Amino acid sequence: MTLTEEKIRELTLKAIHDLGAKATPTLVKEYIERELANADNGIRSNNSTGTSNRVILTSFGVNNTGIVSAITKILSDTGCDLLDISQKIMQEFYTLIMIVDISNMTKDLKELQDLMNTIATQLKIKIYLQHEDVFRFMHRI
Question: Could you tell me the pTM of the whole model?
């Protein structure tokens, strides 16, 4: 699927219509991510599809040892490449943002999200993984 601004707008309007009164920005975003994953059986982007090869990973919670290690191990094990990382620790809390190249990923995006959800539950933190195109276009609408 070629991911254009018009396609994102179309998916957003469909999400709002289908969700009705329940349509919050978070639910619309999740709806669009599911639609994209279903259309491509997970987004394994390449330049010929018109989508980027990157995802944005954000995480936050109470700081503990091994968080970055656990997240980057999953990324490494699935063939992802960490392009950029920003981390801030404020007393016992932390925030983490990563830009990750998924062009050589051995899983689809949904599988990677499931792996991140599993580790987030184990570490009692939050991890959100969004395809860069969804992230970028959701902030244009």
Answer: 0.63
Contact 36, 3 (CB under 8 A): yes
Mark the ranges of the chain whose per-residue pLDDT is less than 70.
Answer: 1-4, 38-51, 135-141
SS3 category, 91: coil
- Give SS3 for 92: coil
Q: Within 13 Å, how many C-alpha atoms sit on residue 83's CB side? A: 12
- For the chain, the domain total comes to 1
Phi/psi at 60 (5° precision): -155, 160
| Cα gap 89→76, rounded to integer Å | 24
Range of the domain at 22: 5-138
One-letter amino acid identity for 47? N
Q: What is the pLDDT of residue 46?
A: 41
How far apart are alpha carbons 29 and 12 in whole angstroms?
8
The three-point CA angle 113-118-119 to 5° equals 100
Assign residue 14 the CATH number of its domain.
Answer: 3.30.70.260
Residue among 115, 57, 118, 113 nearest 87 (CA): 57
